[in-house]
Amino acid sequence: MKSANNAGRLTRKPRRVRRSLTIALTAGAAGGALLLSACSSSGSSASSATSATASGSASSTSSASSTASTSAAAAAVAAARKETTSYPAPGPAFNAASLRGKTVYYVPITLQAEAFQVVSKSLTAALQTVGVKVVSCDGGANPSTAAACFNQALGQHAAGVIADAIPYGLAASSFGSLKKAGIPVLIVNQLPPSGQTDNDQLAYMPGNAVQELDVAADWIAADSGGQANVIAQEFTDSPNTVSYLADNAFPTLKSGCPECTVTVNKVSSANFALIPSSTSSALLKNPDANYLWSEFDTILQPTMAGVQQASATSKVKGVSTDGLLGGLQLLKQQNFLYADVATNYNYQAWANADMIMRMALKLPLPKLVPIPLRLFDRTNIGQLSDLTAAGEVSGDWFGPTTYKTTFPKLWGAA
Fold this sequence. Notes:
Blueprint: H1 13-39, H2 44-80, E1 103-108, H3 114-128, E2 133-136, H4 143-155, E3 160-164, H5 172-180, E4 185-188, E5 202-205, H6 209-224, E6 229-235, H7 239-256, E7 261-267, H8 275-285, E8 291-294, H9 300-309, E9 317-322, H10 325-332, E10 337-343, H11 345-360, E11 373-377, H12 389-394, H13 403-410
Helix pairs in contact: 1-2, 1-7, 2-6, 3-11, 4-5, 6-7, 8-9
């Protein structure tokens, strides 16, 4: 495996630095205008002229900084549209032969969600290459149901457990029991708590939510030319889903689009039926909104219903993340959606398989495993010819799937 050609776009720290620099330059220009004005001891007309000149300089600097920020966002968007053609090796090769015949439990927060179904099928295919069985147990979006799954894994002496999108606090007792029994737990699609150090008993693979939403923010900044009035559908289901936007994507949008505005419309799975009415209300209260940003594809349908209720179909551009089949079909049909940032959940499953086996064998763990993502919008969605359930599971939407042969080689299976 080689370095991924898009790995750089998964790192957002440079954007934060650039934002700070832009603010510093603008503030410096404004400070200079005040200083020049205060130092003028001539008549009022001279003071006024000097102040006007400095003010114009500040405005020019601010405008230049804004243009540069939008250009940087456009460059990030262009990179995110490209296929991934190679992949980083997560770590050194190892022999997984001692795990043959053993079982790994996959417990997502709910198997009813499309993304988790893709991971379940892909994980099964990946671990089959080394003779490891996968049992997928539906967490049922319920602590008691999830606990029953973990107890089942405990009773079956599983080689490892992959908990998908399940916060540690939701199953702390179960995770403690698994640890006591020596069964490693890999938590995916959750941000690790502060101070967390991965080890062979408990490790995190946070997934792509932050990166996806950052790319969506870049797309809005670039597409709007720095003039977006955004309504963001923020999931309040967990601190993580709030943090993805508030602490990451919104600052990225501000970096690429200093003049853009954001109005947050809070939604939740518990009040799914209320999403159409709350969306309609947000649109009517913000008649200048021209972008409607759904945090995840999961809420696209009720969001669209709200757009229709507000008669705003021709006024707003839909933007989303996850890139699931239904969302990309809407995009190709040019129905509401203009952009959707997708994660290669097939690759994620193979990477999860690699990590849980390294944990079970007590091997050193990789510090970062980038998961490929790809931005689809109306400029490149036509490149996808297989917008089917099979295509979604295959990983082919993101480029060559050479990892399906290189991972087994890494594990000593070929």
